[in-house]
Amino acid sequence: MRVLLAEDDDLLGSGLRAGLRQQGFQVDWVRDGLAASCELRTGNYLVAVLDLGLPRQDGMDVITQVRAQGLRTPILVLTARDAVPDRIAGLDAGADDYLVKPVDLHELSARLRALVRRAHGQPQLCLTVGPLSLDPAAHTVTAGDQTLDIMGREYDLLHALLLNAGRVLSRQQLEQHLYDWGHEVSSNAIEVHVHHLRRKLPPGTIETVRGVGYIIHRQAAL
After folding, report:
1. pTM of the complete model
2. Would you put residue 56 in left (φ > 0), alpha (ψ -120 to 50) or beta?
3. Is the Cβ–Cβ distance between 156 and 163 less than 8 Å?
């Protein structure tokens, strides 16, 4: 699950990035508002964590600008501005959630997962298709009563496909979900992950749409 982190404090930003990565997120970190606005417009992120007191462009202006441009990426404000009027202003500007520093990392992670679920019309914690179920909080995958040994990139790939069940995802879209900055991605990386994942899942779970990408159907007969 790829996250954009906009935080200008080096110590806090480094800690948040490391902590979120331990929670299973892929994190890209920017340190000013203009960079945050630019990255958000790429549409490569499932969710963003945004400080308000950013240099070059205030976080509130970033939210107002990207919402005016029609960007729907969920945005969680993480700031030291704890007054009620600030919270109201942030939410009214288009933020989806608002947390005050310091923050508990587990709460932050849970809120991010909830924002992504709601953005994809998934009200339940677990993503389920047929007997296949993925729990983003526990990082587990089950098929019926059997727990499957799926971790790392394979888990991230399955999460992306289940989150978008019924929709074809291209190789590029899957790469954006699986890899943050600094990773060199081989030309057949997604194909390799799909191959290994298929060996662990019930037959027919992942369908190849030739020339387009991959899909898990909402009503897959697994």
Report:
1. 0.86
2. left
3. no
